[in-house]
Specification:
By secondary structure, the protein is an alpha/beta fold. It is built from 6 helices and 13 strands.
Length: about 270
Amino acid sequence: MSIAYQIVVCGSIVPDPLQTLEPVASPTGPALKNEMMLPAVLDPWAGHALFEAANLAKNSPGSKVWLVALGPKAKLQQVMMTVAQKVPFELVALDGSSSGFTDATETAAALAEAIAAIPGFDQSKLLVFGGWESASRGAGATLQMVGERLGILDQFQGVDELKVNADGSLEILERIEGGKHQVSRCASAPAVLGWATGNLPEPKNNPQVGMVNMRTVMPALQKAKPTQLAGAGLSFASVALPKQRRETQIVKDQAPDAIAKEIVAWIKQ
């Protein structure tokens, strides 16, 4: 039984993790020092979701993948030049802040509105993918609220694998405590899946795929809807890097048992 899915991946851009990130207080609230100058990449968690979505669409004839991204339009354009060469998708761009200090509720509302406005939107075929976590918006709640706003009650988090059974049901492998997995079954779409790392490697760059994608990416960026995340009622007392703490003792000729006891005592503190 082959089902044509509408697969929507929610993912934004984040500063390149190889850069030094320093939080500062700006007139509009917390921000990163020289944020607009930092090179950006697609959120790694969202990247896993995008690759899994493309693989599912490839194996489900008639399916289509959309990437709904909220971020500064100029930064989105830079990142899409690379991402567009990975897998086929259609971009839905929202021109707004990609800061990790934005409110998850407002972000979810903007994403849900953009998804519902996709031409030909059919909730009975909808699968919403995204990162279980995020390299910037790590609230762990945004994707869940997107699903709630769309009226999707079947939600799965920490997903590592998705299989479509012969009867059209979805078999989902979710991470749970203790390094174990839970196998869940969903009768059919719609569903929300927050992906962990999945099982697929990052696809190689394909210039032909990139050229096809860019035909829709550039128009999508040009008509990106301005999205203001006001952060009403949200305030931060301070922002700072975590302080490093190092306690070192140099002791000679001490028995291993005594060293072990000291380590245990230090951990209990």
